[in-house]
Amino acid sequence: MSTILKKDKNMDHYKKFGVPNNFEESLPTLKTQTKKWETVCYSGTKINNSAKITFYATPKSNPYGNIILTPGLATNTNIDPLMKPLTFWSLTHNYNVITFDTFLGDFYNQPSFESAQRNTYPEFISLLCECIKFIEPYSIKSQSILIGHSAGAAGLIDALNNLTTGGQKVNFGSVMLFAPWLTDKWKDNLTDIVYRHCDSHGMDNPHRILPIVNIFDIEQNRKTRYVTIMPEFLNNMIHSDFQPDLMNKWDTNVTIVVGEKDKKVSIEQTEQRFFDLQKQPESNRFKFIIVPNVKHSFLNLGSNTPAIINLIKSQRNKIRN
Fold first, then answer.
1. Which of 182, 214, 216, 211 is nearest to 196 (CA)?
2. Looking at residue 86, what is its pLDDT?
């Protein structure tokens, strides 16, 4: 059965979890002080798109392990409302942080058909595979929790499946997938919003590309910028084969998390897939969590940050047991 997290009377006071209300003011300084290295990883395909991998080392001694963050479509770890508090909490609570920022978070001033052609879903999967292989020494030497959100979670599933099919061991103590399976309804709504934006801004769009904006990027940079994909990216992601037998072969704990008020995923579909995963030989590896009063972005920090942090703590407990 799925689990619905309960909200206690102290949920809104998440300072006791070490994430102060004004954490965003000190997060840039914290990241600067803890950043140890940054590199560019390439997919190795004919397109050879790239991602930026950054390693932040907790200032505390003897870290518990690594938190590896993979954000979704048209976002990155600098602006994502889920990734930012996870970064702050991890670095201040004895975890290192590794971030994967792919081309899905690279914003440009103008939409580009050339960019859209390069930013395919198969390319995204190939790139995530290379990122995972690049950090393998860290995931072998220290317990690691791989966390993906939305398109980032969907991509991680396919990347881990591809690596498993190729005989490569998945060296993570735990994988957490936030809102991993988006729906056709969401795709249709997003496409309609994007094309209306194009029309209202007088954009010439003969190739029907999808230039996507993010309000958090606009707020941070004081201008409108775009991540551009083709509609095929969404179709390929949404209709990618669900392969519970391969997920079972990851040989790691997997926690699937959805928000109770998420309109971009189907809780019913996600729960059915969880039931299918429970039919696998290692069914005890899989857990399904519904976080109350939370939408797709997990933006409502006051109510859900403690719940999410407790989930990460439970991953560490499962790893160590």
1. 211
2. 92
Is there a domain that residue 235 lies in? no
Whole-number Å distance between alpha carbons of 64 and 75: 27
Residue 317: per-residue pLDDT: 62
Structural domain contains residue 188 = no
User: Which residue, 154, 136, 162, 102, is CA-closest to 264?
Assistant: 154
The pLDDT value given to residue 142: 87
Inside any domain, residue 252? yes
Contact partners, residue 66, CB within 8 Å, separation at least 6:
95, 96, 97, 98, 135, 138, 139, 142, 143, 144, 145
- Look-up: residue for tokens 């395909």? 45
pLDDT at 307: 72
| pLDDT class of 21 with cuts at 50, 70, 90 | confident
Tell me how far apart the alpha carbons of residues 194 and 272 are, in angstroms, rounded to a whole number: 31
Tell me if residue 39 falls in helix, strand or coil: strand
Model pTM score: 0.93
Domain of 151, CATH number, reads 3.40.50.1820
DSSP classification of residue 151? H
- Side chain identity, residue 159: A
Is there a domain that residue 220 lies in? no
DSSP string over 114-145: HHHHH--HHHHHHHHHHHHHHTHHHHHHS-EE
pLDDT value, residue 197: 94
pLDDT in tens, 220-231: 999 999 999 999
Contacts of 79 (CB under 8 A, 6+ apart): 214, 216, 217, 220
Q: Total structural domains in the chain? A: 1
Q: From CA 54, how far away is CA 59, in angstroms rounded?
A: 16
- pLDDT mean over 286-298: 90
Domain of 284, in residue numbers: 3-106+120-182+240-320
Torsion sign over Cα 150, 155, 160, 165: positive
